Amino acid sequence: KGGWAVSEWTMLSLRLASLRQLAGDGAGALAAMSRDEAALGKGSDYAVNFRVNRAAYLAEAGRHAEALALVEAVRAAYQAAEDQPIGAGGEKVPGSDRHFQWIRACALKGLGREAEGAAAAAAIFAAEQPTDEYLVVDSNALIRLRLARCTGDAAMAAREIAADARRLPIGGSPFLLLQPALRLGGFDPAFRRRILEHPELAAELRGRFRELPPELVPALNHWHPPETATP
């Protein structure tokens, strides 16, 4: 009860769902978010967090029609609520439309609506990097990388990781995606190989990237037992 308590409960619930997703239990993640959204009760400002994450997971699972219908409904409601702020402390998270757009771009491409998908993707690449004094805002690079993964665009993923490699001394968290021992639900090992083979990224990785030793692999995979993880 109380705004901050509900906010913290929502964040914890979403984290638990994301751990299910990482372990390859996409169906369990979707079911958990539906259950927890219902537990909030009708009219909760925080329901949008569950709905947009469900739309993202549906898109990544290839359930493009469901993802598009849900994200369009969430986006319309979010935009119509300009005078009714959503989020912790009454704020909307800056740059939220970037999330709506990458989900739309992936779903539209999956449905064969290439031109509309390209327009949604273009909006992401044109967006300025938002910031906030209190909230952690996802970087544009992270959102573009998620779009690349969702659409299977290895060249886009390679360019984003190469840009991170040039910008950051140790290459940034996207380097983790290149680890062969990483078990990540919905991440095709063949897609990883295509990323690694991209000429622009290969040049950036030379002399800077190594496979993690066996003793660090459990941490890489969030300590999920191997039998519950999806290669």
Mean pLDDT metric: 86
End-to-end Cα distance, whole Å, is: 40 Å
**SSE run:** HHHHHHHHHHHH
In DSSP terms (H or I, runs of 4 or more residues), the helix count works out at 12
Rg measurement, Å? 18 Å
Q: What structural category arises from helix and sheet content?
A: mainly alpha
Broad shape:
globular
Name the poorly predicted regions: 85-90
**Helicity, as a percent range:** 55-70%
Largest sheet: none
Total count of strands = 0
User: What portion of residues belong to β-strands?
Assistant: under 5%
Blueprint (SSEs and pairs):
Elements: H1 3-22, H2 26-40, H3 47-60, H4 64-80, H5 96-110, H6 114-126, H7 140-151, H8 154-167, H9 174-177, H10 189-196, H11 199-205, H12 217-220
Write a concise keyword list for the protein shown above:
62% helix, 231 residues, globular, 12 helices, mainly alpha
